[in-house]
Amino acid sequence: MARTPRERLVRAGRGFGRPPMIIVDTVLRRRAQEGRPIRVGMVGAGYMGRGLVRHISTSVAGMRVAAISNRHAANAERAYTEAGLAHVRADTAGAISAAVAGGRPVVTEDAFALIAAEGIDCLVDVTGAVEFGARVTVAAIERGLPVVTMNAELDCTVGPLLAHRARTAGVVLTGADGDQPAVQANLLRFVRSLGVSPLVAGNVKGFQDEYRTPTTQQPFAKRWGQNVRMITSFTDGTKVSFEQAIVANAFGFTVPRRGMYGRDHTGHVDELTGMYDVDELREFGGIVDYVVGAKPAPGVYVLGTHDDPAQRQYLELYKLGRGPLYSFYTPYHLCHFEVPHTVVRAVDFGDAALTPPAGPRVDVVATAKRDLPAGTVLDGIGGYDSYGVAESHAVTRAEGLLPMGISEGCVLRRAVARDTVLSYADVSLPPGRLVDALRVEQDNLFAV
User: Fold this and answer.
1) Which InterPro entries match (predicted)?
2) H helices, E strands: number in the chain
3) Which of 261, 270, 322, 318 is nearest to 295 (CA)?
4) Is 233 within 8 Å of 260 (Cβ atoms)?
5) Is 396 helix (H, G, I), strand (E, B) or coil?
6) b/e for 105-123, b at 16 or more Cβ within 10 A?
7) pLDDT digit string, tens, across residues 375-406
8) Which fold has domain 23-179+337-349?
9) Tens digit of each residue's pLDDT (9 = 90 or more) over 59-73
10) Which label site among 254, 262, 342, 377 has the fewest CB atoms less than 10 Å from its CB?
11) 170 near 144, Cβ under 8 Å?
């Protein structure tokens, strides 16, 4: 159905700005007036972390980045310098506490000293590292700190267990507004508030090629000053698999098949309403999916149904079509710009933007990116050896498949061909990792 430009503008706005987090501006204004800003501790000072520090420091009254930890202090110092802030160095929890109490931005190479320090109201994980992120998150939960994680790699691997631990400890562990999973979560909550039953939560990608490597992605990473392995994980399908698994685990959805449908579609996301079997979606209880090339990009979409015939008439009147599937979308995700919303939601409202309420529903499993000889030490996420594919947790457990977040450092016991999904039986695990223990604990806790 052709639409006028006005109708297109109206539809482009449908969904964003709707979540209850909009009240955070009032809370932040009050905090600024009262001189009691939320004091954020940040672990990781890469591209996204530096953007977050700059944004909070220049645009978010009522909040400040009180302390930054990074394994190389120079990167943490760069984050403050680029934001126009003078800083001090500290190596102990006591020295960090003193700096925070005095309102002096502080840099440390010891994340655990930062977590142990007094005066931090919320921790933000911007590392993207699975093993180190696990240690940081566990320590923060044990300390009683709310945690906002931008670490999708960790969240997908052991997020349900960490969320369980956080609930037990009485603290909030949440994904971050601005990244696609939480943007979908806000949209899903909005759609449910309309009485619409969501059946598809989707992600819009511009490009995907499972065989991309750090070599092919180096020019793009260099241009934007980003980590080349992170960029590779965006293009080889691993990151979208992590993101959609996180949404599935938070909302009880599944995947319709290994890898999701992942269609190529250059039209509008509204047109996707005719590409799904509603009865199949209902049988699944809702699915996660993605589409390559659709518009608006780089946004997210939710497709849902309404059971009330009278309300379906209203939805048609309001230009959502005749159903049975109705399309809702957010046309962008603004990453670090939206993270302060999550911090306020966690600290002042005890509200998680996105968190799994129970056990895992979807995993991301490691798949060979090339023919791999026996003895290969897998280079993990965004590398040369493997890419991640979404699979139902039931299949992952039944077939003993190797989670992508576990794969780094594993040694192949046998040769495998390209596109083979790896299993635990194929590898030897590195000794002494926390993430392996957490994965076992998660499997045991949520065993059917």
Assistant:
1) Asp/hSer_DH_NAD-bd (IPR005106), DRL_cat (IPR048423), NAD(P)-bd_dom_sf (IPR036291), SAF (IPR013974)
2) 18, 16
3) 270
4) no
5) helix
6) bbbbbbbbbbbbbebbbbb
7) 999 999 999 999 999 999 999 999 999 999 99
8) Rossmann fold (3.40.50)
9) 999 999 999 999 999
10) 377
11) yes
